[in-house]
Design a protein that fits this description.
The chain is mainly β and 413 residues long. It has a single domain, classed as 7 Propeller (Methylamine Dehydrogenase, Chain H), CATH 2.130.10. It has a four-stranded antiparallel sheet, with no helix packed on it.
């Protein structure tokens, strides 16, 4: 063989080797790895209601919902703008509270917002006309979280040292609750609360219903080792008091959510197209708005709506074609939703939402009767919106700017 031919064969072989090495490096370090379950996955399904376990639910229905648009999604309508819409900054934004505000909630009469002032440790009401009224002279330093009453000014305050206090702002009375109770939620009429009693031993962990001051406790559901998969959430019609991520396994990008009743009912499960389920029930409890992520949508939270009671679960299930979290939305009534929708939501945002709390938001109004989604634009100042609430008459949105902590109101046309 001639030297020229040997040189050609050597160069050819060397080139093939370099290509192979490069491809190996790409596969090892750069190609997307197979997706793995993130936080909030269902884990292994349970099949009994014995102590230390939660019940599996019945059949969850078919994969495709029965929404009004193709593939179970609501149709886009004139005036619609999803993520990255074109509406500009809108007038009608007013500053209500200059100092840092937290734990916002709609007042029982629906005319304003209740909130905690982290600077002076007091609670206040803020009205859209600019009035700010102290709810009490009591001072509660370093409140970590608040569970608000629905029809009364009752609240359960949790603190960083794990202590909990029930406080009635009308009677100015307070009661200390057990430290191992957590995840509080009031019933619709505020006569009862539900909580997770998270004792040290798994056999002593239960969902508990009691009076708001902790009296007359009743264990309604054993938690066992599944406490982190159970979430107290007393819905408007009182049928569902909690939900659990212990439903039947449906595949990686689907899950079944078990709906729990206060009498140990074994309701049908809600089928969710995605992971990271985060719900927001409508005022009546008849519908549930929720967000979930999938590999297909690049791990971004996506909104869905479905029937939310044991009788209509999975009915009229529809994708809303908006990428945001359910906690950035609020129901005006059973057919109208307002959502703060982040612009330029990056890939993987749903896996670490705490990293994206300062993205600028647009406000979108959703009409479930018509499928219309209306971009109301950005409030002045291009805020990242937290704790969005809407007044009873539907004319004012109130929210906290997540960056500054200031409380604002936004007038709805």
């Amino acid at each position: 063989m001639s030297d020229g031919m040997k040189r050609i064969l050597f160069i050819t072989g060397f080139t093939i080797l370099i290509i192979a090495i490069g491809f190996g490096i790409y596969v090892m370090f750069f190609r997307a790895a197979p997706s793995q379950p993130g936080t909030g996955s269902t884990g292994s399904p349970t099949t009994s209601s014995t102590a230390g376990s939660l019940p599996s639910s019945g059949s969850g229905g078919v994969r495709t919902g029965s929404g009004t648009g193709a593939n179970g999604s609501l149709p886009n309508a004139q005036g619609t703008a999803g993520n990255g819409g074109t509406g500009g900054t809108q007038p009608g934004t007013s500053l209500l509270v200059e100092s840092v505000t937290q734990q916002i909630s709609l007042t029982p009469d629906g005319t304003g917002a209740r909130f905690y002032n982290a600077v002076d440790g007091k609670f206040y009401r803020a009205m859209p006309d600019g009035r700010v009224i102290a709810m009490s002279d009591a001072v509660f330093p370093n409140v970590d979280s608040v569970a608000w009453g629905n029809t009364t000014d009752q609240a359960i305050l949790s603190f960083p040292d794990n202590s909990k206090i029930y406080y009635d702002f009308q009677t100015k009375t307070q009661t200390t609750l057990p430290n191992h109770w957590d995840n509080f939620n009031f019933s619709t009429d505020d006569t009862k609360i539900i909580a997770k009693s998270e004792a040290i031993s798994p056999e002593s962990r239960f969902l508990v219903i009691s009076d708001p001051n902790g009296k007359n406790p009743q264990a309604i559901q054993a938690l066992g080792d599944n406490g982190d998969k159970v979430h107290a959430d007393w819905t408007g019609n009182g049928q569902v008091v909690a939900y659990s991520e212990t439903g039947d396994a449906l595949g990686y990008d689907r899950q079944q959510i078990v709906l729990l009743g206060k009498n140990n009912e074994n309701f049908r499960g809600l089928v969710v197209e995605g992971r990271g389920f985060e719900p927001l029930w409508s005022p009546s409890g008849q519908k549930v708005l929720y967000s979930a992520w999938t590999v297909e949508n690049n791990y971004k939270p996506e909104l869905w709506v479905s029937g939310g009671t044991p009788d209509n679960v999975n009915q009229d299930r529809a994708k809303l074609n908006l990428q945001t979290w359910a906690h950035k939305c609020t129901w005006a009534n059973d057919s109208t939703i307002f959502c703060a929708v982040p612009e330029n939501l990056p890939t993987g945002a749903a896996l670490q939402p705490d990293l994206f709390t300062t993205l600028e938001d647009r406000i979108v109004r959703i009409d479930l009767k018509t499928g219309q989604k209306t971009d109301l634009g950005k409030p002045d100042g291009n805020p990242s919106i937290k704790g969005l609430v809407v007044t009873k008459d539907g004319t004012q949105l109130m929210y906290i700017d997540a960056t500054s902590g200031k409380l604002y109101t936004f007038k709805v046309d």
